[in-house]
Structure formats: structure tokens, C-alpha cells
Amino acid sequence: MSRKRVAVLISGRGSNMAALIEAAKAKGYPAEIVLVLSNKADAGGLAIARAAGIATHVIDHIAFGKDRAAFDAAMQTVLAQHRIDIVCLAGFMRLLTPGFVARWPQRMLNIHPSLLPAFKGLDTHKRALEAGAKVHGATVHFVTAELDAGPIVVQAAVAVQKDDDEEALAARVLHQEHRIYPLALKLLAEGRIRVENGHCLVDGVPVPDTASLHPLT
Ligand code: GRF
Q: Which of 4, 17, 141, 162 could be stapled to 85 by a disulfide with Cβ–Cβ 3.0 to 4.6 Å?
């Protein structure tokens, strides 16, 4: 089976993008990162992508003013030009229009730094600490029109330590992000994910009740 062609959308440093690029180098990985698209010309991740020999493209959202649909249409054109199969949002800080999202049903993933549905939106680590959460983590989910609310593909949990500050907690969660995003993309690219009633099944199986990371593989 030919490898799925993946675009990673970024706005910043691109550490998750880098993790995906690294993972995709492995023999037998079912996807290749063929495009990195950013809404910011100064996104740090662009240099990493270029150094890896991956095509990059910048579409500055500022030029589109409030016209989100036009910005999304410009992205769609570039994605089509590169014959993209799967889109991975990785620190992409733009809200997407429902029309654009509808073009990528179960073909667009996002990584979010919390155990969804807890702490949707921004400042997740700060809010988890403020709430006194004992367990925090990261989620890879399908993108739907509602922010941070699509079917959950993979999650990883970390224990919140007594002396954690935002930075320490963020670093531990980020480490898990870099594990689960390549895993989720692999499962998707291999066609092993099915969504039933808004829940993801992997190989037809729901979450084993003992897992802190699902799936464990
Ligand atoms: C990550 O924490 C990700 O979960 C969130 O934005 C951050 C992006 O970091 N969506 P990076 O650009 O991948 O390093």
C-alpha cells in the first residue's frame, strides 16, 4: 500500500511536527510528511522542515483580514496541489471554518495538551495546576467544527507532581505528545481507526480499562 501524503500545519516551534517527521523516517511507517504549511513566516518549525528537505508553504493569515473562509480556501488550494491525504494540526493557532473542516472528515488530526474533554482551549497546564488536577496529559483527536471536541484517537496521561510549575508540567506532557502523535498518525494511515457514535475504535476495539496510554502499542 502506498504511503499516505501528510501535511503538517504549524504556527510556531514545531516540535510535534519534528516528531512526526522523525517517525515517518522509519521503515514501514505508513505516512510521509510531504508539506509543512504555516500561517506565520517566522514559525521556528519551518527551518526544521526545510532542513529535512520537506516542502514548506506560508500563507499569512493577516493578509486575509477577517475573511477566514478565504484563508481556508487558500490553504485548501495548496493542500490539493500537494495531493494531501491527511492533515495534522500541530500547534496551528487558527480557528478553521466548518466548510474547511468538512473537506477533511476523519482525515484531519489535532494534538491538544490536555486530557480532553478537560481543559479545551488555551493555557491548559496553568488551568490544570489551578484546578488541582492529579492527572494531566495530551490528546490526539479528529478535528470537527467544534474546537477541541472531535473523536479522541489516542491519549497519554502524566501524574501531576507536588512541586510542578507550568513549565515542568508542560515539558512532561510535551514528551508524551511526541509519542502519541506519531502513533495516532500511524493508526490513521493504516486505516485501523473507525468512528462509531463519536468514539474511535482501533482495530475494532474500545479502550482497555487498565490503560493509562491507549493503545499501549
Ligand atoms: C503543543 O503543546 C500542542 O499540543 C499544542 O500546541 C503546542 C505546539 O507545540 N496544540 P509545537 O509547536 O509542536 O512544539
A: 4
